[in-house]
Amino acid sequence: NNINKDGENYLNTFVTVESLDNLEKQINESQERYANGTNKKLDGLPIAIKDNFTTKGIKTTCGSNILSNYIPTFDATVCKKLKDEGAIIIGKTNMDEFGMGSSSTNSYYGSVINPWSKKGDQNELYVAGGSSGGSAAAIAAGYCMGALGSDTGGSIRLPASYCGVVGYKPSYGIISRYGLVAYASSLDTAGVLTNNCDDAAELLDVLVGKDTENDSTSISFGKDILKEYKNKLSTKTIKDLVFGIPTDYLVKELDPDILELWQQVVSEIELHGGKVVAVDLPHTRYALPAYYLLATSEASSNLSRFDGVRYGYRHELHSEDVGLGLKDMYTKTRTEGFGEEVKKRIILGSMSLSRTQYDNFYTKAQKIRRLVSDDFKSVFGNQKVDVLITPVAPSPAFKQNQKLDPIHVYINDIMTIPISLAGVPAVSVPLKLSKENLPISVQLVSDRLNDDTLLFAANLLM
Ligand code: GLN
Known about the structure:
Belongs to the amidase family. GatA subfamily. Subunit of the heterotrimeric GatCAB amidotransferase (AdT) complex, composed of A, B and C subunits. InterPro entries: Amidase (IPR000120), Amidase_CS (IPR020556), Amidase_dom (IPR023631), AS_sf (IPR036928), GatA (IPR004412). Its EC number is 6.3.5.7. GO terms for molecular function: ATP binding; glutaminyl-tRNA synthase (glutamine-hydrolyzing) activity. By secondary structure, the protein is α/β, with parallel strands linked by helices. It has a domain at 14-235 and 389-461: Amidase signature (AS) domain (Amidase signature (AS) enzymes, Alpha-Beta Complex), CATH 3.90.1300. Helices cover 36% and strands 13% of the residues. The chain is built from 14 helices and eleven strands. It has helices at residues 20-35, 77-84, 133-140, 157-163, 197-207, 225-235, 256-271, 284-302, 326-337, 340-353, 359-380, 406-411, 417-422, 451-461; strands spanning 14-17, 46-50, 88-93, 146-151, 166-169, 189-194, 242-246, 275-279, 387-391, 426-433, 439-446. Strands 1-3-2-4-6-5-10-11-9-7-8 form an eleven-stranded mixed β-sheet, sandwiched between helices. Helix 7 (256-271) links the parallel strand 7 (242-246) and strand 8 (275-279). It is globular. Mean pLDDT is 95; it is low at 1-7. The structure holds glutamine. Glutamine binds at residues 99-102, 131, 151-155, 183, 295, 413.
């Protein structure tokens, strides 16, 4: 069932593909419902799921060796909601291990290839972006109408921009995290990748809701998102919106094609009567280091559950292991089960949470998080901006064989991370191709729980 093996899917989009028998069964059931008029909201629509959402009876690996044999006994709330509305789950998409990465090259199951790469030319293969690279590639390749992704610091928006699809990270809390394997719980957000904003709104409509039973951080959205979105589309225009341009995002690393697109979008908006103002988000430059301390701290704690005892991969005993104890089993299991990036982050997170370093690192990073969040509050509150426009990443997709140093890789996230720290919603909107024929996008950001306005604005630009 793994289409990686038959050589057909050179994109390496999926870790697991649903069996043909099961797909056929679901399609038949859906056709029956259409025939007798009992069809549901998403009946018959093919959806892919990032492999860090638990799926009952279907392997859920998080792109890691440590979960290579893990078959959950329960569905994540979002998967259950999709199934209950008749969606057909076609498979589990490849990703950076536990969501740690920006290019989907940190997977135990190999790198995801960007569908915009020239087929067959090994030197022309581009990264899909990460960590939801499999989900983004699945949409770009036309395998499905929607895909679930998760976004902790940009993992939906960045791959969406590299693959030229819509990638939407909702307000933190409006979608249940139950069954989304935790990376950094205070930032992890489930969201969707689609071809357009209408599809994103339709999916959101199914996915939102307070999960009283299973996720105490989830909240009620408080309005009918789809209705509000459609209502705005039919009654409002670009003239009703105030767009903010954060000058702090004008970084020296910005690719000329992306800068040009950003400027073009602003001129187009002004041409059509929208209001554009320059705004300051003064703490932007502290967001990246704060994020990498907070995310790794939470990860070091969350990932402590993978010890080879309860579930997942366990070090296989060999004759040389005779006499070793339980702790050695933990160590060997985790040494073999986790990849390099994950280990690096567990060490960094443990350091920042340690008794002697806690106040210097973790506490300080939390304070920065508040300042970054207050920047957004001021722009959306006092300055009455409806939607911010920024680039998604400093550059379009880079080549698979391009070796980047770790700092450079982390810098890819500078434009998505502040938004994650603030918990506000954002969407990556594909608009153009660069001179190298690679998709480039802008990121729109709105105030918390203003997701309907956000998707409406994104629709206007597309
Ligand atoms: N690239 C960022 C990281 O590695 C964000 C990843 C994500 O959003 N899951 O932490």
